[in-house]
Amino acid sequence: MHVWHAPRFLHMTPTMVEHSSLDIMCLNKYCHSSSSSSSSEHDKKIFTKLKLNLSGDYPRKNAEILSGQYGTNLLLIGAALMLAIAHHDPSVKEEHLLSFATCLMILQLIWMMWYILVRDRQKNTRTEKDVHATTCWIRGGLTLLALLSLIMDAFRIGYYVGYQSCVSAVLGVYPVIHATHTIAQVHFLWFHIKDVIKSFETFERFGVIHAVFTNLLLWCNGVMSEAEHFLNNHKRRLSALGYENLTIEHSEPDCNCTTSTCSMFSSSLYYLYPFNIEYHIFVSALLFVMWKNIGRTIDLSSNRKRLVTKTQGLTLGPILGLLALASTIGILVVYITHVEGSLRMRQSAISMFYIYGIVMLVVMCFAGASGLLIYRANHMPLDTSKNPSRQLDTELLFGSSIGSWFMSWCSVVAVLSTTSSPPYRWTNLIYSLLIVLEKYVQNLFIIESLYRQQETGEREDPELPAAPEIFSVTSSLAPPYNGIINRAYETPDRTCVTMENEQEESGQVYRCPRKHSEVPLPVGTKVVEPPNIKRQILKNIAVLLIMCNISLWILPAFGCRPQYDNGLEQETFGFSIWTTVLNFAIPLNLFYRMHSVASLFEVFRRV
């Protein structure tokens, strides 16, 4: 017999019920606080993650800022010494500047040796490389400039030997260290400039930026020496024309030369200065790209060698370019021989230069505008991938244009405000305006060419050879083989293709395995497609602009500077102000022309 028992909750006393209700209330309260704490924990996780992300970037940003400030202050110390030397303060001499530059070069040599030794110990570790950092032809050009710099160092050593009894030993030590620095730096450029540094990042940032600003300081020193040489020559010409109150500084030592070659060494140095100046500024630009690449994550899909197209139909561009180069040499010889003659010969030489410059700039404007029209007709998208080298090219083109633009607008103001009327007055005005226009057009042409995406489908490009490792079969040759698809035909969007990053320095080539097609290919059939007329025109334009920029670099680099000799700007702005403008603008203009040559050669390869 079963006995019925009352439910347990019926036996609860009021006190128990009260405690039970309190327990339920506490449970509800606990549930609410649990939800609130989980939300706060989620916020804390997000904040911690954000904090970690920010703190992960902080060491890199701090290293960039600190190293950048370190390099800038090195350059400013050197600039302060150069200004004191230019003022001819007896307490600050050239030996002090050369000693400072020598110490900087020794420190860079120590860093490069350490870097090379560390990389040699890490042979088993593959070093990432930025294939866009530089090209073989740029390094070859820098090697040629380095050889000319070594010749200049040999002349300096010979000059020191002749005057060693009365000059400081620093004048002998400096060219020896500079020659060693040049040789080691060229080796570094050939084998390590493309490296993307991922170890000892903070230390390496300081090492690379030290190298950047060391080369910038050597560039500034060369610019100052060359400017002082041209200024003294200009003062001599003015003194010969009857101008007074001009102080010509003599830099010859107080003793006699013990050899018969001192004067030859001294005069030959100034013909080699332009090459040494361009060498150091280009090296600093390449090292700056390396500094920007430190710690960078390389996008393998965009880190490929640029396609180099075949060269066909190059006739008009090289012919016109060689004609411009030959006429430039003739203009240079005539100008240098006539500018120091009588007043009439001097004015005719200056007029000849401006007429030559107007013709040259009109041709360059027309060529650049034609290239831009071709690009507008061909609607290709721009390449927006991250590329520090290309970005630096663009910034340097714009930055170095400022010097000649400023000089041109000063000439325009001088021509319009002067009361004198020499025969070259209005040709000077036209020449100055064309300088501004030509740089506008050329900068647009170069930048658009560098940022244009190359035609990815070699199918549409008759000049580009087909990839030799891809065996594709069209439907016109054979039907599918039992429904099996030829996988070698599906390469464009595969992930493995992005890994095909050929690293020429490491000697390693990464290729994806591809199966050969089972369908036999026809032998002996060759499809001849018509040449691409637009590409041929663009290549001729690039060659013509290369030769014209070389011509416009040669003239001011070797002494053809009518801005010193025409007298219009000097009459308006005064001698000291105008020479200061020229000392600022002419080095930037020289760098612009040489940098344009490098960029246009890259355009020629990519078009």
Automatic annotation (TrEMBL):
Record-linked Pfam families: Otopetrin
Predominant place of localization: membrane
Gene for this chain: otop1
Membrane-spanning intervals of the chain: 70-86, 98-117, 137-159, 171-191, 203-224, 270-291, 312-337, 349-375, 396-417, 429-451, 537-555, 575-592
Family stated for the protein in its record: Belongs to the otopetrin family.
UniProt keyword annotation of Transmembrane helix present: yes
Protein name: Proton channel OTOP1
Keywords noted in UniProt: Cell membrane, Hydrogen ion transport, Ion channel, Ion transport, Membrane, Transmembrane, Transmembrane helix, Transport
Source species, domain of life: Eukaryota
Listed GO MF terms: proton channel activity
GO cellular component, one term: plasma membrane
Subcellular compartments: Cell membrane
Any one GO biological process: inner ear morphogenesis
InterPro entries recorded: Otopetrin (IPR004878)
Membrane topology: Multi-pass membrane protein
